[in-house]
Amino acid sequence: MRILLIEDHSRLSDAIVKGLASLGFGVDAFQTAGDGLNALKGIGYDAIILDLGLPDRDGFDVLSDIRQHDRSVPILILTARDSIDARVTGLDAGADDYLVKPFAMKELAARLRALLRRPGQALGDVLTVGNLQLKTSSRHVTVCQKTVRFPMREIQALEILMRREGQIVAKSTLEDSLYGLAKNVTPNSIEVLISRLRRRLVSARAECSIHTLYGIGYLLKEHTR
Fold this sequence. Notes:
5-stranded parallel beta sheet, 12 strands, 8 helices, 225 residues, Arc Repressor Mutant, subunit A, single chain, Rossmann fold, alpha/beta
């Protein structure tokens, strides 16, 4: 899952990026409202973490702008403003959740997963296709109930494909979700990643396979009997 983080405190921002990465999230971090909103125009994020105390604009105004751009993306406010009035204002303005600093990284991740499970979002904590199962909260993959080890990036790609089983996932969707604005992405990064993931599924004898639709994207499909 790709997360947009708008947080002006650099040390906290770095800690969130690293902490969420260790728990299976990809995060693009920005320290100003302007940079964060510009990123949102080009990438379809799964959720947004928004600080209220930004240097260039008030967070509530940013929240309003985001909601005008996208009414469905989950938004979690992360702030030191702990008054009831601030919480009510944030939730009424369109935020989906409100977490006060300081906080535990595991709680932040759990709240994001909860938002992504809400109706209209990426539903389900346990995904199953044939004999392949992925528990998204723990990133635990099994085939025939036996644990199979996957690198984190492959698990992220697998989750996207499993959530859209039987549907075509555009290459650009995978690139945005897995790499966001990362600068070290080569033109064939997705092809290489999918090739490795496909071989790993075959080796594990998963009853599903990834099909390539050249020039379009990828499709995960359960084997027919």
